[in-house]
Design a protein that fits this description.
This protein has 78 residues and is mainly β. It has 1 helix and 5 strands. The protein has one domain.
Amino acid sequence: MELRIRIPLEGYEVKSYEDTGTMLIFRKDLSGEPDYAIEGDGFVIEFKNGEIYTIDVYDPETAKRLKKEFTLAITKRA
């Protein structure tokens, strides 16, 4: 079974830690403990108030794969 989650990255910060090969994506406007979490293969997604709070990619191979397939597009709005 595969689950694909598509989220707009507005309001999120993406940190990549080159020394460990890990990655953290988190909401800038939320704080405190998450309500619940889902663990995947090399990552954990935490939720708060029904929204994705953090995506902690703790496995370097998973982070490498995510970086390769992960695209951020910034569009200038009129």
